[in-house]
Design brief:
The structure holds two protein chains of two kinds.
Chain A: E1 8-17, E2 22-31, E3 34-39, E4 52-55, E5 60-63, E6 65-70, H1 83-92, E7 95-100, H2 111-124, E8 128-131, E9 133-134, H3 147-153, E10 158-159, H4 168-180, E11 184-187, H5 192-195, E12 200-201, H6 204-209, E13 213-214, H7 217-233, E14 236-239, H8 245-256, E15 261-266, H9 267-271, H10 293-305, E16 310-312, H11 320-323, H12 340-349, H13 355-370, E17 385-395, E18 414-424, E19 427-431
Parallel strand pairs in A: 1-4, 1-5, 6-7, 7-8, 9-10, 10-11, 11-14, 12-13, 14-15, 15-16
Antiparallel strand pairs in A: 1-2, 2-3, 5-17, 17-18, 18-19
Helix pairs in contact in A: 2-3, 4-7, 7-8
Chain B: H1 24-41, E1 55-60, H2 66-77, E2 81-86, H3 98-106, E3 112-117, H4 122-127, E4 133-139, H5 145-159, E5 166-170, H6 177-188, E6 192-196, E7 212-214, H7 217-221, E8 226-229, H8 245-252, H9 256-259, E9 267-269, H10 282-285, H11 292-311
Parallel strand pairs in B: 1-2, 1-3, 3-4, 5-6, 5-8, 6-7, 8-9
The chains are: A alpha/beta, B alpha/beta.
Chain lengths: 433, 317
């Protein structure tokens, strides 16, 4: 911890609270781990004794980000990432809550595993860490997990991680059963048979590289199936990572029909496209794969319109041994928890999306979907806050990343803006100097 | 014996990773140089000394007879020391040790590494990790540049020029690195390229490669000067991409009846090894219009030309 839990006054700030659609110049007072008030001109005079007064010089003060999809290697892949290293990376990226994935070894499919993650988070983490639990036992896609007990233990949602539940009957029953407990089911929508041996987006570019393509239909067919199952069951359903315009059509129809369907897009798919693969650059190998530029544009538009609810990092640390391989044999995934905000700010600076909208999709909305108390600057809310310098120019050097792995697609990228202070439960856990 | 070369062509890049990136002049330069080696290879004394002292490593991660033998002979005839490494994919755990192997070999100061690998892009990856020149002898489904060059040399010697010829490439386009390299090369040299295959064996986006696409052999072969057949891998024959070898042969196998749709003086090519009775009929393969054996001969000459042109670029050359 960089500091104790003295009260903090953030003055001369641009307060952006997407939960109340507020964007105004003012001050924010934090005490006892909660937000006291956010308003114009609190001033140093009106604060408790011993308050740390921080002059924000016009920088943005917003709710700390909630990363709804991050792979953390505990347990079983501590060489890739630990809760400690992931939370350091999160803090440096303005993320105050990590929602970790259950596709660990062993899988988080049992209440004792949820308990394990929570204890490790309490002992080694500097940000909040909440696990999603497996939807099916052993992520095998066959038998549902103890959804009630797992929820009671602290699981915030249910997912089979990067695996799709291919058996529609299993999915239907899980959705129905889960709706009794009002839990969110998060599903990776890729039909594994259609993905086959595919390693990048299907199309001309894959054909030129001699790489087997993954058709967009692998995603849309699974999403369409799920939407029809939700119509049948009424459960709360969230598509883990939509990547193409066709999926957006499916999503739009589901929402128009009043179904409880929501969706995330990864920061990678919002800011990169298949051409970034270039000459077999494995750091751009993703699951689902990066799509064409028109799909990326459609995603950004859908984010701006609210059709896409959440932006997540899809943080997936992979070490050098599994990335320095021929493209088809290399592991998929990219680290992203630390770069989600600066990469997202690219969209803001390009005029593709409003800041408050981006922050809404990175904090308020995930909090709402997962039933977490953050994502707001409302008085009484937990003091999970990020101070963002929108303009600071910098160049990303992957060796400076806090994550245990360096597989970032943004190495040497020019960035504009970053988190300069991250506050979790009233304590400053990161300061950019 | 050291013959005096008429051609002084030098390849501008350090590696030959694909036809993609070669200019018209590069291709013609290599073909012209290869012509000289065709003559040399037909003499009793086939050796030159231009690669004397150089070390060539043949690294084949995929079984190959003709390409490996061809590179080995090419290297030896140019006076290089040639080492063959056959790394079966079973003994090496996937590509895991590719970089390690590359670093190890690099420490032995080879001048040229020739590599074949089952993964697209693997040869390029290797080229980034070594100090010597690297030649792609086939990477996955990506490129096989020396095959396209030897095909071009064979065509040019038989037809005089490549420009304005109609070339029909038939068969498993989807999985074929030979097709990719040939499409790029033939387009660069101004040929009209057609691809003929069942839709399951055509990559998505193929029409943007600058080719005419058809699913009908008669239509594809009509008026063609060159008919280039591709090998269909055994594991793709029975139900996964085509229903059976019988059905495939009926619609896409080259027999005399289908060949009759091409020009009367059309010539038939195949990169080998052939599946007789699957993609090509024996009578056609061994017939008067077949260039298949000549392709093998041109293979050695083209590889000598590539080695020679790259070696002129090596340090201390």
């Amino acid at each position: 911890m960089l500091s104790d839990r003295r009260p903090i006054l953030l003055t001369n700030a641009r307060i952006v609270d997407p939960s109340r659609d507020l964007d105004f110049p003012g001050d924010l007072l934090i005490a006892d781990g909660t937000i006291r008030e956010a308003k114009r001109g609190i001033g140093a005079a009106g604060v408790p004794e011993g308050t740390e007064v921080v002059d924000c010089r016009g920088r943005v003060v917003a709710p700390g980000l909630i990363d709804m999809r991050a792979f953390v290697g505990e347990p079983g892949a501590e060489h890739r990432e630990t809760i400690a290293s992931a939370s350091q990376a999160a803090a440096a990226g303005g993320v105050t809550t990590i929602v970790c994935q259950p596709d660990t070894t062993p899988a988080i499919d049992d209440p004792t595993m949820v308990d394990f993650v929570q204890r490790r988070a309490r002992d080694t983490g500097i940000v909040h860490v909440h696990p999603m639990a497996a939807l099916t036992k052993g992520l095998a896609g066959e038998e549902m997990t103890e959804i009630g007990l797992l929820k009671a233990a602290g699981a915030v949602a249910f997912t089979d991680g990067l695996k799709s539940v291919t058996n529609a009957q299993v999915m239907r029953r899980a959705l129905i059963y889960a709706s009794d407990f009002d839990v969110l089911i998060v599903h990776h929508t890729e039909d594994p048979a259609l993905v086959g041996e595919g390693v990048m987006n299907e199309g001309e570019f894959a054909a030129r590289l001699g790489l087997i393509g993954v058709p967009k239909a692998a995603e849309t067919i699974m999403l369409e199936r799920d939407v029809r199952l939700v119509a049948l069951t009424g459960g709360r359903y969230h598509a883990a990572s939509v990547t193409c315009a066709d999926s957006l059509d499916v999503l739009r129809r589901a929402k128009d029909a009043g179904l409880t369907v929501t969706a995330s897009a990864s920061i990678n798919h919002l800011t990169l496209n298949e051409n970034d693969v270039g000459s077999y650059r494995t750091f751009y190998k993703m699951e689902p794969p990066l799509r064409a530029e028109d799909d990326r544009e459609a995603l950004v538009e859908a984010l701006a319109s609210g059709l896409i609810d959440v932006v997540m990092s899809d943080h997936n640390p992979q070490d050098v041994e599994v990335k320095r391989l021929p493209f088809a044999e290399a592991a998929a995934g990219a680290v992203g928890i630390e770069t989600m905000l600066p990469a997202g700010l690219r969209l803001v600076h390009n005029g593709e999306i409003k800041l408050i909208k981006l922050l809404h999709a990175m904090s308020t909305k995930p909090a709402e979907l997962l039933g977490l108390p953050g994502g707001t600057l409302r008085p009484g809310a937990p003091a999970d806050v990020v101070v963002v310098d929108l303009d600071e120019p910098w160049i990303l050097d992957r060796d400076n990343l806090k994550s245990k792995c360096r597989n970032t697609p943004f190495d040497e990228a020019r960035m504009q803006g970053r988190a300069v202070r991250t506050i979790v439960a009233g304590r400053t856990v990161y300061e950019y100097v | 014996m050291n013959i005096a070369h008429k051609s002084t062509f030098v390849l501008s890049s350090r590696h030959l990773l694909g036809i993609e990136g070669l200019s018209h002049a590069d291709i013609v330069g290599l073909l012209d140089l290869a012509e000289e080696f065709v003559e040399l290879n037909r003499q009793v004394e086939k050796k030159t000394a231009s690669l004397r002292g150089r070390t060539l490593i043949n690294m084949f991660f995929e079984a190959s007879t003709r390409t490996q033998a061809s590179f080995e002979l090419a290297g030896k005839r140019l006076g290089a020391d040639v080492m063959n490494m056959s790394v079966s994919s079973s003994s090496i755990r996937k590509g895991e040790t590719l970089i390690d192997t590359a670093v190890t070999l690099n420490a032995m100061h080879p001048d040229i590494i020739v590599m074949r690998h089952h993964a697209s892009g693997a040869v390029e990856l290797l080229s980034q990790k070594v100090d010597c020149s690297v030649i792609n002898a086939g990477d996955g489904q990506h490129e096989h540049p020396t095959q396209a060059l030897l095909d071009a040399l064979t065509i040019r010697r038989n037809k005089g020029a490549i420009e304005n010829l109609t070339v029909a490439i038939c068969g498993d386009i989807l999985h074929s690195r030979v097709a990719r390299s040939n499409i790029i090369l033939l387009n660069t040299l101004g040929a009209r390229v057609r691809v003929v295959a069942p839709s399951t064996l055509l990559p998505l986006g193929i029409e943007r490669f600058g080719v005419e696409v058809t699913r009908d052999m008669r239509e594809g072969l009509r008026g063609a000067d060159i008919v280039m057949m591709l090998r269909l891998q055994r594991e793709r024959m029975n139900g996964s991409f085509v229903p059976s070898t019988q059905e495939y042969f009926a619609y896409f196998g080259l027999d005399q009846k289908k060949l009759a749709f091409a020009k009367p003086d059309a010539l038939v090519m195949h990169p080998g090894p052939m599946n007789r009775g699957v993609e090509i009929d024996s009578i056609v393969a061994d017939g008067a219009q077949s260039l298949i054996r000549e392709q093998v001969e041109m293979g050695v000459a083209v590889r000598m030309a590539v080695l020679e042109a790259l070696s002129r670029n090596l340090p201390n050359a």
